[in-house]
Amino acid sequence: MGKKMIVMKAVISNWIPEDAIQYLKEAHFEVFVADSNEPLTYLSELKTADAYINRLGLCDASIIEQCKKLKVIGRTGVGFDNIDIACATRHRIPVVVTPGTNSRAVAEHTLALLLACAKRLKDMDQGVRQRNWPIRDAEPPTELEGKTVGIIGTGAIGKIVAQLCRALGMECLGYSHSHNRAKVEQAGCVFAESLPELLKKSDFVTLHVPLLATTQHMISLPELQMMKPTAFLINTSRGEVVNEADLVKALQEGIIAGAGVDVFSQEPVPPEQPLLQAPHLIMTPHCAALTPESMGASCLACAKGCVAVCRGEKWPQVVNPEVYGK
């Protein structure tokens, strides 16, 4: 019995786990893995693709317009700011996302950054290496029990962050940029009527919102000045949710006590980025969701969604469900 005919093609920007690739192949997809953040370098492959799984790199209108066969675009995660959703929608191309698959990983990373800030781990480590033993008295760590964590965005990730923080005895205050009281309270948080209220009351502020026109630079100098001088900011959402120049100023001038950041407006971070020289700042390279467990689940879910769309199914986890019509 001969092999079944390959009827479709999937192009993948960067490495994904073998389980997801195998799923595509078993669904009779030819698979091309570019291992590149620059779609222009493999545009000839994209032009013949039915599905495009874009982990990294910019999929803008200039790319989409040239890919006439494209039936679906997939994102391994929930962020979609690197895809031109309006252009995809005009061409009736569903954009598949994988909500929930990386929630635990990102929430745990958020807690790790929060703890590292509270315990001053970066500064203490540097102090020991530089033979500055008295740093332990100059910048002592703080305990979390009884402290208030302000969670901006109480979706799947924010909800787990709240669970983890409550387990440590922290008070959880939640703010929804859509002002959804029920969602905040279901996450186990006290509802903050406004962003200023949350900022003023919190000892730690953590961000879990998508990058939208309404959330870009939602934390800038005025918001940082509302925070306690002893408070810390944690960002594992998207870099441009925070005005990075203002964060540098706040750290240099002691407006806030410190910050933990996993995401940046430009990635990789360029060597001239002032954040690299800012004091009391812990940085990680946008790795919160890169656990084997999270990567496996999100890439497989993305592959399943892309296959379903190519087969004519209305996959529910898409950014732009309006492409399906009524």
Compact overview of the structure:
The chain contains 13 helices and 12 strands.
Descriptive overview:
This protein is of the alpha/beta class. It has two domains: 126 residues, NAD(P)-binding Rossmann-like Domain (Rossmann fold, 3-Layer(aba) Sandwich); 181 residues, Rossmann fold (3-Layer(aba) Sandwich), CATH 3.40.50. 34% of the residues lie in helices and 14% in strands. The chain contains 13 helices and twelve strands. It has a seven-stranded parallel sheet, sandwiched between helices. A five-stranded parallel sheet has the order 2-1-3-4-5. Helix 1 runs parallel beside helix 13 and helix 5 crosses helix 8. The protein is elongated, with a radius of gyration of 22 Å. It starts with 7 loop residues before the first strand and ends in a 16-residue tail after the last helix.
CATH superfamily of the largest domain: NAD(P)-binding Rossmann-like Domain
Q: Going across the major beta sheet, what is the strand order?
A: 8-7-6-9-10-11-12
- Regions with pLDDT < 50 over 5+ consecutive residues? none
What is the CATH third-level topology name of the largest domain? Answer: Rossmann fold
Number-wise, the strands total 12
**Gross CATH architecture of the largest domain:** 3-Layer(aba) Sandwich
> Could you give the distance between the termini?
42 Å
Number of domains: 2
| SSE succession | EHEHEHEHEHHHEHEHEHEHEHEEH
Question: Mind telling me the CATH class of the largest domain?
Answer: Alpha Beta
What general form does the structure show?
elongated
What percent strand?
Answer: 5-15%
Average residue-wise pLDDT: 95
Q: What integer value in Å does the Rg equal?
A: 22 Å
